[in-house]
Amino acid sequence: MSATVEEITSKAFDYVVIGGGTAGLTVAARLAEDPSITVAVLEAGLERLDDPVINIPGQFGKHFGDPKYDWDFHTVPQVHANDREFPWPRGKVLGGSSAINFYGWNHPPKQDVDAWEKLGNPGWNWERFSKSLKKTEGFTPPTDENAARYKQVFNPDAHGTSGPLKTSFPGFVMAGDVPFQETLLNAGVKIAKDPMNGDKIGTCMSPVTLDAKTHKRSYAATAFYQPNASKPNFRVLCDALVHRIIVTSSNDDTVEAKAVEFEHGGVTYAVSVKKEVVVSAGSLKSPQILELSGIGDKRVLGPLGIQTVIDLPGVGSNMQEHIHSSVIFELDPEFGHETLDRLADNAYATAQLALHAVGKGFLRIGLSNYTFLPFSTITSPERAREFVGRQRQRIEERQKGGSLPPGLKEQYELQLGKFERDEGGECELICFPGYDGIGGTLGAGKPYMSILLCFNHLFGRGTVHATSTDPHVQPDIDPHYLEEKLDLDTMVETVKFIRRLAELEPFKSFFVKEVMPGPACTTDKEIEDYVKDSLKTTYHTTSTLSMLPRALNGAVDPNLRVYGTKNIRVADLSIVPLHVAAHTQSTAYAIGEQAADIILGRIPPVK
């Protein structure tokens, strides 16, 4: 059982962690390994450890929009995406988004993490990052039979085997995964050399965060909360919405956190802090909490009537995202394809739950077929140079005109370099076992396979800011989708690439027809309109409290300390200074692990 409010408010804690999500529980549990250190965690959601909607896989998106699990954020209307408002699900439950995500476990390319160090963050490189991931992970290899049948190739040196987070290859794999990978190989795409060890360009089968013994989700609450819940120095309070950090000013022009104000059961409380506050509420809530505490851009705080204690324009800026759309194919039902579409049949869904209880059946499924490619592979080297050249010219014009925010030139140089050297995994394909379009399915009882086309290195930058002093009012979220033409061009070219793949065997014989965008959509303009109508988030928002020099719009330093504070740190995806070509779950755990090591002095502080 999680703590009572009396256990939290009756004493001061060495460390108060705001947010019991992926990174927050990681850093809190690691701090509490020292019995002399007291740690309190405040989590806005509830503890749902035995909830089958969380624990049983294969229920992709079932939590979305449900207030029992989801914050249910929405963006402002996106001007360049047909004025659509986008739902942005995020986990509002103990374990955060690791409780409701699609449980993918893949790591960033080495060069993407090394770019963080190049942006002014000594020690934030692949070598240290990969060590932290192995500390988290408890990997179980596939059986020899599954490894051969499903192409589940792995390098043992790339995995941790004794960590608390259980990872494995899924026990059930969609029938289309292997044929699609074989088609990619026939198109000249290579098998990724070492995808979990920093060299991921190409196609591969990837693990998931499922326990191989139980076939249930392994996530932050099972990995880092449950094994430590009985420790007297580790207290977690759920249903605790943080209002603000209470700070006092010092003589050296810094502020010091003294307490954290929060709400529980409709009553406002405060918990006192002896050493530090660690903000781990995620890329969308962490900036809002700092702003409500008086830390942020005075141009945002002033109109809200919030006294600015630290003027820090980097708070809530530099938002970076991943996006996706889909090319969707109808499969021949005569082959008895098992896809997510069949779960709409209550009898089938009930039977699968019974099979899962004995370690069998469809619900052991995971998304495992991933392909990460440079833009030049998706289109052609000549067209890629043309597209990227236009983007470079646009950036240079903005720089000369003075409209480029501080720090963005340095980020763009690294991004453009990856495109120009053909070394990035900015274009991603995922085999999704069902219909992933807008507005439900196209036909009852029909099986579908969606090829998700994702863009991982967007040039657009967004913002997230408080709009009220009321912590219950969700922040204003504006990702600036498709504001940069290259972001849209890349998606259009990837649709065309998938269609070329569909002309190759063995995938060509695997489906009946393309249903989305469909044969009537042929011109670039028509594909652009389709992308704008079908675009979705990939739930990977980062960088809203970027770890950059303060003069370059940074919010935290390489020690994760918020600029201008003595004892407030941030440990979540908001600190990522430049996005990575990977699904972000593993990155969140790696940040939590390193944050704990920094706080405990295992990683020497950057002076």
Account of the 3D structure:
There is one protein chain. The strands form six sheets. Strands 1, 2, 8, 9, 10, 11 and 22 form a seven-stranded mixed beta sheet that branches. Strands 7, 14, 15, 16, 17, 20 and 21 form a seven-stranded antiparallel beta sheet that branches. This protein has 17 helices and 22 strands. α5 packs across α17 (585-599) and α13 (381-401) packs antiparallel against α14. With 607 residues, the chain is of the alpha/beta class.
Give a brief rundown of this model.
This protein is an alpha/beta fold and 607 residues long. Helix content is 27%, strand content 18%.
Which descriptors apply to this entry?
single chain; 607 residues; alpha/beta; seven-stranded mixed β-sheet; 17 helices
